[in-house]
């Protein structure tokens, strides 16, 4: 069962790339006639270039690199350089806090006992 079964009716599957001309026998690399490559060779001759086929059939050694035969490149990728340590972020200096400006003095709340004691002061009524 294909996953196209679940696609909407208007969906068209992508078309395969056009097949290239078959690579002639004269242009095949030396290792391409190995018996283990025969099932793969007919498909590869139509879908990849001569250079890609040469690279695919190039011998590689995947064993212990200390005992690799001379002349055969080791199949492991070359180690990539490790980037240096990242310096720790420096703290951002913050400006010193400024003292708050002096505000106007607030009136002292009036004590009802003080009002009765000094009748010369005006009586201030506040809404509740």
TrEMBL record:
Protein's recorded name: Uncharacterized protein
Chain intervals with Pro residues compositional bias: 76-110
Entry superkingdom: Eukaryota
Organism of derivation: Daphnia magna
UniProt-annotated stretches for the region Disordered: 13-34, 76-128
């Amino acid at each position: 069962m294909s996953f196209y079964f679940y696609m909407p009716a208007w969906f068209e599957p992508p078309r395969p790339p056009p097949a290239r001309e078959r690579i002639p026998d004269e242009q095949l690399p030396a290792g391409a006639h190995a018996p283990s490559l025969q099932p793969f060779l007919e498909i590869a001759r139509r879908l990849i270039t001569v250079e890609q086929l040469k690279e695919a059939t190039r011998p590689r050694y995947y064993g212990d690199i200390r005992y690799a035969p001379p002349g055969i490149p080791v199949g492991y990728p070359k180690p990539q350089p490790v980037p240096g340590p990242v310096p720790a972020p420096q703290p951002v200096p913050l400006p010193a806090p400024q003292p708050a400006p002096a505000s106007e003095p607030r009136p002292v709340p009036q004590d009802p006992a003080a009002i009765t004691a000094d009748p010369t002061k005006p009586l201030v009524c506040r809404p509740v």
